[in-house]
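Task 17 of the worksheet. Students: predict the tertiary structure of the chain below and write it out as structure tokens. Keep your answer in the requested format; marks are given for formatting as well as content.
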Amino acid sequence: MAFSCNRPVETNLITGKEGQPLPTFNLLLPDSSTIYHTDQAKGKPTVFFFFGPNCPYCQQQMEEMKANMIELEDVQFVLLTGESFGGMKNFAERNGLKKYANVVVGLDTANFFLKYYKLSGYPFNAFYNKKGVLQYVYDGQVKMEKFISMTQRLN
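Model answer:
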């Protein structure tokens, strides 16, 4: 599948999946042996951030997320890619993501997420409330002011 970086301006998408529960799928974590199951995301507001390891818009959004992590500490972030294991691991290391207790980084080995949302590029953000129900979907880099506002409405 060919993917590309989307324009840096976010687009609020209507997917038809709004109001539906978080689907069940697994991610392979950077240690290459641990599996993250999406059932672990229930009980707290969660943002799924689909990224390309070399996408400049993804990197810029990640920098903004890290700069605002104190304000976002009550949100669970699941960062996932369908690209390579090495690319995913490099992205996690380059961004020092291990130090954030509310951030999980993983490889979607089955490409479930991109098929479920019919993705053609990244960055892509799916915002789930604490009950695990989809609230908002954004294609492209989300401006941090809007991003924070969206996460505050997930409780």
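Marker's comment: The mean pLDDT is 90. The domain at 11-152 is CATH 3.40.30.10 (Glutaredoxin).
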